[in-house]
Design a protein that fits this description.
The structure is a homodimer of 240-residue chains. Chain A has 240 residues and is α+β, with helices and mostly antiparallel strands. Chain A has eight helices and eleven strands. Chain A folds into two domains: 135 residues, Jelly Rolls (Sandwich); 82 residues, Arc Repressor Mutant, subunit A (Orthogonal Bundle). Chains A and B meet through strand 5, helix 4 and helix 6 of A and strand 5, helix 4 and helix 6 of B. Chain B binds a DNA duplex (30 and 30 nucleotides) through helix 7.
DNA sequence: CGCCGCATTGAGTCCTATCAACCCTCGTGG
DNA sequence: CCACGAGGGTTGATAGGACTCAATGCGGCG
């Protein structure tokens, strides 16, 4: 029982709205939710191209999504942190858009999609929340990535750190100190940079007392200045 | 009557699935759809931050979405072509994510969102199509933009031309010859490049007989080679 | 102990932003 | 009808950022 309502809390978090769902939807959801799932480091949650059958809500841990493009190239297209919903980009195509694997031990709730579809008419509020969740992802990623496109490595890394920081803060963790289980290479692939450049940028930040990094432990020392760096055009400013 | 079913056809195109909606949904939709809207060049469809009240399906013409970031910087975050659905990124926030304006004369169908919500329970198929549409956008943009992040100007421009080409082809127009009403500067802002670099890249393509450009008329002369360019990592290849 | 993955550091090269100049077209107003 | 100006497009020179290639250090794990 405790387990199931935990799951419910998890969904409410993910499909975030402060007020809860109507009782009838909560009860029905209890019926649909699959008990939590546990992945160890390097375990694969789903493979690119595999048939889409469930959404997953991240409860703890960190995962990455890798999409093979070109038979020779694969991109890191997403990181998933606690509170994120995995699989929103697979709903229409019916296949997972990339291979999702755990960067560290992780626990997830599974929401089988066919059962959600079956009961769609009895879960109007939940569906609306799901719709909102996808809409928000679309808006935020579109903006973030377009912003990154015109930025220097310095600004891209700052954007990345601040995004992570904001995410942790929303979940109730410290926005200034955290551990990130991904490698420099992962971060580079996600940001469109090389691992060397990512590492060098961290070093430059450290020299400026903006950041303290030791291995994969990060301490943001000056959020205000990082924000200024993140939104500094670096290149690309028009002069009207 | 013709007008209304035209609108319906428009939606079916936008929320694309070959088979039609059930009759009951078609009839209800006729009731919801607002007769087509016409915009002239430079007319504004909606302003960033304005209250979100409708989705718009592009019937003809071309529009752009500009998002102000920083009080000093505004990014071109989307182009909208015939068949596209405008406003998917505003559903959850209740505010339009950017200012959308016409780059040339355009006609659109308006779908008031509150009425869609009111009849949500009687439009299950339509809602599902909307959900699919947003999911697809999320996946495609995520992939495209992450791809662009690591690419040279040469490859970015090729990606852009091919995306446009594919879009026109899907709508039944020529994939090799088209007019694009946006300026070099618009394209640059969208791709994270300067107008000079965009123009120079076009010139370089012309010198290689890949492309013929005159003003805003484009003729793709060698799709295969363009595709190779678009997916050539340019930089960023790992050697394992 | 020795290997392997990851991180750091350095030198050289290429790409692209920047700044500046010039051309063209078009719409406006005298 | 023409002059003018604004906006968009093209071209060139320069400087700096980031990739590439290569070598070294570090840590965990078999």
């Amino acid at each position: 029982m405790a387990e199931v309502s935990d799951c419910l809390a998890c969904y409410l978090n993910v499909l975030s709205k402060p007020e809860g769902l109507p009782d009838e939807e909560r009860l029905l959801l209890d019926d649909i939710v699959v008990p939590p799932l546990r992945l160890e480091k390097r375990d694969v949650l789903c493979s690119q191209g595999a048939s889409f059958d469930a959404l997953y809500a991240v409860r703890t841990g960190c995962l990455k999504q890798e999409t093979a493009i070109d038979s020779a190239e694969t991109l890191l297209t997403a990181f998933w942190l606690p509170g994120d919903l995995i699989g929103c980009d697979a709903i229409d195509s019916g296949r997972y858009a990339g291979t999702v694997s755990a960067l560290e031990t992780a626990t997830l709730c599974q929401l089988p999609f066919d059962r959600l579809e079956t009961f769609r008419h009895r879960l109007p509020r939940l569906c609306r929340r799901l719709q909102n969740c996808i809409s928000r992802s679309l808006r935020e990623e579109r903006l973030n990535l377009h912003q990154l496109l015109g930025r220097t490595a310095e600004a891209r890394v700052a954007c990345f750190l601040l995004a992570i920081s904001a995410c942790f803060q929303r979940r109730g963790y410290s926005p200034r100190s955290f551990r990130l289980p991904m490698s420099r290479s992962d971060i580079g692939s996600y940001l469109g940079l090389t691992q060397e450049t990512v590492g060098r940028t961290f070093m430059a930040y450290q020299a400026q007392r903006l950041l303290a990094v030791r291995g994969r432990e990060y301490h943001l020392l000056d959020l205000a200045r990082l924000e200024r760096l993140a939104s500094s055009p670096g290149r690309r400013q028009k002069r009207p």
